[in-house]
Amino acid sequence: MRKRSMRSRYNFAAVLSAVVLVCCGALISNQNVSAAGEGKITGTVKLEGTAPHMRGIDMSKDPYCVKASASAPAHMENVVVGSGGGLEHVVLYISDGLTGGALTAVPSEEPVFDQKNCMYTPHVLALDINQKFKVTTSDQTTHNIHPNPNPMTGNIPWNQSQPPGAAAIEKSWKATEWIPVQCNIHPWMHGWFAVVKGPYATSDASGAYTINNVPPGSYTVTAWQEDLGTQTQKVTVAAGAAGSANFTFKGK
Amino acid sequence: MRTRLRKWSLWLGAAAFLTLPLASWAQLSTFDIETRIGAESHVGNITGHAKDAKADYRRYCVGCHGVLGDGNGENFPWVDPKPRDFQLGVFKCRSTPTGTLPTDEDLFDTIARGMDRSNMPQWSTFTKQERADLVAWVKHFSPRWANEKPGAPITIPPEPEVTPERIKAGRDVFARVQCWKCHGVQGMANGPSAATLTDDQGRPIQPFNFTEGARPKCGDTDRDLYRIFMTGLDGTPMPSFADNIKPDEAWDLVFYLRTFMRQHSKEKELAKQLGLKPVDPNAPAPAASGQQ
Prior knowledge:
The complex is a heterodimer.
Chain A: H1 2-29, E1 39-48, H2 63-68, E2 91-96, H3 100-104, E3 112-116, E4 119-121, E5 124-128, E6 133-137, E7 143-147, E8 160-162, E9 169-171, E10 177-182, E11 190-196, E12 200-202, E13 208-214, E14 217-225, E15 229-237, E16 243-244, E17 247-250
Parallel strand pairs in A: 1-16, 1-17, 3-6, 5-11
Antiparallel strand pairs in A: 1-13, 2-12, 2-14, 3-4, 6-9, 7-8, 7-10, 10-11, 14-15
Chain B: H1 2-19, H2 30-34, E1 40-43, E2 46-49, H3 54-65, H4 104-113, H5 128-140, H6 144-147, H7 164-176, H8 180-183, H9 222-231, H10 247-258, H11 266-274
Antiparallel strand pairs in B: 1-2
């Protein structure tokens, strides 16, 4: 009995050391990417097949919201498909291949996450680690802004009220995570803080995106969609030329 | 060798299957937790040691909060509200701003106070030393205390005299920040958003009903009420109003909330004399009065 368990322990140790070796190898091989010059990665994200039906939202809980969204009835925004099958609100970032300053630089601009007509604008806000952002309200009704990250990652959940005319709330996140955010007063309000490390982009209404500030090198680009999951592609950025990666998600 | 492996994979599969529906975020093992057994707490001049609380926890707490402190004790399925997951380090009753760790005193007070309308009794039977030890024990479950300091407690100005004007002003605050969206215009927990509230784990939760004579979970003194809405109850839909209610207005709101409560109070008497009507949910939201 003991002999057997010893043997399995040796096996385990062998596997572990192999894994460590492979990881070290990967780390070393990646270091030849130089940070000189700035390129970009562009492309489009599309949805193939029929788009899932996005339910209309009943806002009758709050008469203000009904009135505010009267001209453009609100729908769920989990999968937003624009003209030509372009998929909006997809977060694109470099999941592998970046090193040094290009990876650790934190953008100085502060994106805004607004509460407008009882919906979140934008529905998905991509952010770098430690990048500051603002939560604002354009509504004449009280919201509570309640992101719900997993505290085990280092991101800490908080919950603050924003009555009409309240000042902007400035925050940042410590770790990469897809953080759902909701308003408990208006339970249909649901959005995301997509916290990634390094340069990122979010696809627009036509599904187009551009990741800026990418030094020449070869990378893995990951596209994340809240319902449809993630896809990855290898992209090479040459000096003075843009890399390109188009993604296609399949409708369910 | 082979049969051993098979047995293991069977056990692993079964364990994964059983723990999945609990949807717990807890990821720590006994090994991770044991590394923090040296955790301490400081309450007044008492120093609590986690290792001294092991026996008390085993005897009195483990049934609900679980061996790993993740709230998955054997009573978990039958307890509502669910036991706290100590590994997350997220606590309702704090004197510190939303999104920060509570102070040792906060946890010390919570153990003695218990949680009204839940399965958490008042543990005032423990000595202060035992409670301080248990605070250290609670802290040792979460890695957050190793990486962060507790938030700075909010300052609560001295309580002013209750006046009719203050109660009326409190009603305005209640209308402006729209407490009634969940708590209802008469504090009966029947606001338009009350029915759909969920906690951070997605479990249904009810707003506090001021009228049924129960104590608020985080204490029932005026200072406790002040603290509850200025810090928020983390892990629940109750947000912090610290940015939107000024300290003086906060006392007005405390007095107005007292008028809902079943218990006799000076505030209730004054509200009756004033003939105060509940706020009108259909009135347009009042403008902020001289907001910062």
